[in-house]
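TL;DR need structure tokens for one chain.
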Amino acid sequence: MCFAGVGAVPAAAQDSTAARVAAPVDIHGFVEAYYRTGDPTTKDGFRLRKGDLKFSGELSPRLRWRIGFDAGKALALDDETEGAGDSLRVTGVSVDQKSRIVQDAALTYTVNHLLAIDVGQQLIPLSLEGTIPTPNVETIERTMFIVERSRGTGLGDIRDVGASANGFAPGGLEYHVGLFNETGESQGTTDTNDQKAVVARAAYHPSFFPAFQIGGSGAFEGGPTPQRRERAGGELQYHDARLTLRGEAMTARDGELRRFGWYGLGAFRPVPAIQLVARWDEWDRDRGAESVLNNAFERQLVAGASYTLDGNVTRLVVNVVRQTFPNISTVPNATFALFAFEALW
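>> reply
TL;DR here they are.
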């Protein structure tokens, strides 16, 4: 969808602004709402999972702009405390900048057919599934190492402010490398320290087997131990019109905390409108502890189906999830279901 802006401007300014005012603006959106039932760790109910609205346009043959919002995000607060136990008190409260609805706000300068430079708030190049647009993800929820954010931020599908180089090198090598304030912790705000995070992802697409790719991604931010961040992951995927097979593993260090997750996914499309999917997913959110939900190792088996109608605009999705915690008995195992209604334009 696009439109051209038209407005009255002073005569003296018309020559210099006419081309800019009349430039087309592309508008895209995605809305996903689902109902979750049967999960003992979450109350049954509806959730607005996504409410994306994206605007983009061209300022010159080499320069494009984009800005996106997610109205489905829930605003959160950060608090500062002093003391301990009965003497604990809140000394300050501020908005968690990661919970603001602004997603992308960036400029893209295309150097040539091999290189483009992005500057601004953008998706950091970490994990394959983390860079797949939400409407194209085969399951209602992404893999656990991306979705679970009890320790501040996930390991994919996250944004930060910085600059990145992106493109394809000769021979089928896709590359993304960037310098960011943090690894997702400082989305929407300024950096809190002098160190910067280097984040990169590369994938090889062999010309003799174009449906296949193999690659990896990682990130590093140095400094004192509490702020130190390390990520490393590998990816494999086969994707064509009928079949998707994908596997990823991701390990992370946040200060002294160690985390690890991996999944294997298969999706089959017998006809274009129908997709059947299954995913085996394991996530250890704290490799040094195993006592409560916030540090428990979790395993999920997801099976689902989706049906696309209205000319690829609307999708109905159902996922059944078997959730287990093999190493801890205080959190109950469960089988629950998600029913989603999605619209894309």
